[in-house]
Amino acid sequence: MTFQKIVWKMAKYHYKKYLFYFLCNSAAVLFIFVFMTLYLNEYIVSVKQIEGLVYVLSIPGAALIMFTIFFISYAHQIFMKKRRSEFGLFMTLGMTNRDIAKLLLLENSVIGLVALIVGLGSGVIISRLIFWLLLKSVDITDFAFQLNVNMFTYTVGAFFIVFIISIGQSLYMTMSRNIIDNVKTEKITENTAHKHPAIGGIGVAIVVGSIVGLYVTYTDSDGGEYLLLWALGTFLGLYIALNQLTSFLIGLIKKNKHFYYRKLLYLTSLDYKYKQFTTIMTIVTIMIMVTLLYSTIVYHLYKETEKEVVEQNPYDIGYISTDSKNNLSAEELDRIFAEYGNPIREHLTFPIYFHFQEDYDGYTYQLALMPLSVFNEFSDNPYLVQPNELIYHLNHEVTGEIESLYYRNDLRFSSNGEEVIYETTQVIAEKHFNYLGDLFILHDADLADYKENINGMDATLHLIHVENWQESEAAVLALEHAFHDYNAKTPLLDVDHVPLEEELFYIDSRVDGYESTMNANGISFFVTIFFSILFFIGSFLLLYIQLFSEVDKEEQRIQKLYRIGITSKEVRKLISQEITTLFMLPTLLGLIIALLYIIAMAQDIGGIVENPLMLVRFFMLAGIYFVILTVFMNFARKKMFRDLVDFK
Amino acid sequence: MSVLEARNIVKVYGKAEAEGATTALNGIQLSVTKGEFLAIMGPSGSGKTTLLNILSGIDKPTSGEVLLGGVMLHDMDANSLAQFRRKQLGFVFQDFNLLDSLTVKENIMLPMILEKKSVSEMEEKVQELAGLFEIEDILHKYPYHISGGQQQRTAVSRALVNDPQIIYADEPTGNLDSKSSTTIMECLEKVVKELSTTVLLVTHDVFAASYCQRIVFIRDGAIHSSLEKKSERTKFLDEVMEHLTLLGGN
Lengths: 648, 250
Fold this sequence. Notes:
The structure holds 2 protein chains of 2 kinds. Chain A is an alpha+beta fold. Chain A folds into 3 domains: 1-188, no CATH class; 190-316 and 526-648, no CATH class; 326-504, no CATH class. Helices cover 66% and strands 10% of the residues of chain A. Chain A contains 21 helices and 9 strands. In chain A, strands 5-6-4-7-3-2-8-1-9 form a 9-stranded mixed sheet. Chain A is elongated, with a radius of gyration of 34 Å. The two termini of chain A are 37 Å apart. By secondary structure, chain B is an alpha/beta fold. Chain B has a domain at 35-46 and 86-247: P-loop containing nucleotide triphosphate hydrolases (Rossmann fold), CATH 3.40.50. Chain B has 8 helices and 10 strands. In chain B, the strands form 2 sheets. Chain B has a 6-stranded mixed sheet with strand order 6-7-8-3-9-10, sandwiched between helices. Chain B has a 4-stranded antiparallel sheet with strand order 2-1-4-5, covered by helices on one side. The mean pLDDT of chain B is 89. The chains are: A alpha+beta, B alpha/beta. The A-B interface holds A 189, 257-258, 261-262, 264-265, 268-269, 271-272, 557, 560-570, 648 and B 58, 78-79, 82-87, 89, 91, 93, 97-102, 106, 109-111, 113-114, 116, 118-119, 122, 144, 158.
């Protein structure tokens, strides 16, 4: 029998170690690939450029990359810890460093290659499945699962880099250690350096400080700039706190001897495990926190689409007409809407004067002006404007104090060699009209003057309410067609710098706004849920590996306990308590931090008290998360019972 | 008065009638009286450890019965047996069997903790045993920070903590140097003399066996002979050596 044959025989005997390592690597490849199928999906790529999707993708994307790197190197470390003692044995029998390096490279290459194939294969299936499930549940059109070469090359590249670094590190460690250290690898205890409750206190202080910081700064649209910074602070603090947590708590519990002794096995075992798995617990906590935080925010946005659209479009339909454009009679309008079973409930019209200017860059912008008498008819409170003054109507809401955003938008023009100025004396920041952007409200006489001096276009703003806006899509489309046909028959407008007709005479409707917002929010929702699923599986995998990588040691411990007379029932209880803590502690911590983040981040939309539905949605998602986690936890518990108790 | 009684113990691995079945124990009869210090000796593969496992209820005999303090061991279900073991029996193992995550003090207390004894009772008992075996100074250390001899004395203390009827010691000196072996055997001797606890030792270490009052020799799963100490230890040691030579070496 050759030495190679002995090595092969040993490998066959320890196939579980290889299987575990292989499965971890396959899972890592699967993860990267599933992420790539989303990130490099052509539609997502195009949406990323225009929507705020980069924001949705950035933090979870970075977290996922960190997770994958950690996952591969962690699986490798576990594998190598077991292998290194065997290498030590081979070395005592005369195997050289070169032989060890060859063996290590060979077995890792084979495992890596097969894991890559299996990971990619299962990645295609899993990704397709997730896409299928999510697209079924989210109402998004023109978005589909697709595969392209980049997805495969990026996955292979990313996996290859992390894998090679891990192997390099192991090679270095195996070669640089002496034989005895290698043989004893499994017996080397991992202790935490710098153990002091004060350090844990600092960690907690950093977590609290970063959340308070976020709460204080996240008050306007600029708050997001510091989000990543505060999040990094929280993660760092969390790591430090978790690192010291159990030692600190056990120190406290020890003061109550009765309780401490009653829970001795559970507490000491937890302390030992925590020392070893602080990094994993931190990562799992972060993943749970990010998952819950993002899914709540995006789910909330998704669900608030209707409210948002109603706020953005005070009327169901808005458009402008002139004598020659969009000028359908009231009867014709009634007929179109009646035909679709959605009759007009209210139809308001306002005269508006438009004129168009070109700036230095050749960009055309429009000014819309309304006489004060017309606006006062519409408004509940009559406004007063003196000659040569104007009201600047923002036609959208502004958070914060309006004085701080006082827009000085005086109008000026020359008349008979004299400069005429209309000075802004009031600002109205409310959404009143569909279709329009900013609006200048002038004294009636001033507007007449203005029209005489400035070439522009007299138009009518139409604001319509129908019976049921949610069902108005077909009627709006029919109206669009009717306008199109009408406008095609009439001559082009003769106004200075007038933009293209379709830029002026479109219909601004709630139903279209709803559709497009729903689509945009739907994609964010889709992406976030996609991440949540990945993160969920990832955190479960980490916890699972954490438990089962040390199952040999656990078995020895249980054996020892059996020998001194512990009952199976007591062992079950012990295992159950430990597993529950390992699963639930990061979940609870992640949940609490996510909740605090949501409270802090709700500051820019008026605080959490103003948005109680956000809390309701958070607890709903957290509940779902909890239920699924409990199912997974029970699975892990049963497996642990099978491995450690039932075989007795 | 007999504390342990083994009646016609047979242990066969594999199906009795089938080919390849191995008879590990074949009709062992044994009676141990209260306060006795007994050693079971025999060559490797003679069935020593199998016998110990059966006598302690860890393993079941193919036939025969074991009575411990008048209780039939193998009539009990697994849970009652486990509870019986931790209340009535103490164990000392070759590999010490201490939990690394617990301090010496906590390791000693563990059987009492499982029994939900009060804190004061546990503390008192630990102090008493630590004093007896001179390990007071290391009570707050962890097993990997103390010597093999100290670990074994911790294990002996743990075995005694619930005032068991009998202590089973399986090669307790197997992992120790001669100095530590002496200390441990003196400890076990103390257990018998000062606490009147019965000790049953399984060993192939002649030196360790010489501390016992009686030695039962087994060979090929059956009791071959026995020796009783009638003289001082060193003389008894010579007798045991002589007996082993007659037996065919160890």
